[in-house]
Design brief:
123 residues; mainly alpha; two-stranded antiparallel ribbon; 5 helices; 2 strands; 7% strand
C-alpha cells in the first residue's frame, strides 16, 4: 500500500476501504492478488487491527475480496468489473450533476472543455 493521508471527514476504516478500491480500479491490485495482512496494515499505519478488519470485511461482503482460510484475503476475479460498473453509476448519479451544473453556471461550451485536452495532445 502507499502512503495514506487520513482525514477527519470519514471513519478510518472507510478511508482504508476506499484506498483499496482505488488501488483495484488503478490496476495496482489485480484479480488473484493478496491484500496485505491485517497485522501488516495495522502496524504500518498505526491502526487498530479491528479497524483494518472492518475495512477488509466490507470488501469481502461486497465480493471484491475473498477470504482463503489460513492464507489471507485475495482480490476476486470479478472485482474490477463490479467496481468499474458501480463507480461509473455513482459518478453519473452523484458527481456528474454537480459538474454539469458548474459547467452551465460558468457558461462553458464543448470547445472550452475540450480545448485544453486538444492543446496538450498536440504539443
Amino acid at each position: 500500500m502507499t502512503a495514506i493521508q487520513w482525514s477527519d471527514g470519514a471513519p478510518i476504516y472507510r478511508q482504508l476501504k476506499d484506498r483499496v478500491i482505488a488501488m483495484m480500479l488503478d490496476g495496482l491490485l489485480k484479480p488473484g492478488d493478496a491484500l496485505p495482512s491485517v497485522r501488516q496494515v495495522a502496524a504500518e499505519y498505526q491502526l487498530n487491527p479491528i479497524t483494518v478488519s472492518r475495512a477488509y470485511q466490507e470488501l469481502a461482503d461486497e465480493a471484491l475480496v475473498e477470504k482463503r482460510r489460513g492464507l489471507g484475503m485475495y482480490v476476486t476475479e470479478e472485482a474490477a468489473k463490479k467496481l468499474l460498473s458501480s463507480e461509473r453509476d455513482r459518478f453519473l448519479r452523484e458527481e456528474w450533476p454537480l459538474v454539469l451544473e458548474r459547467i452551465q453556471r460558468l457558461g462553458l461550451n464543448m470547445q472550452d472543455l475540450l480545448g485544453p485536452a486538444k492543446q496538450g495532445g498536440e504539443a
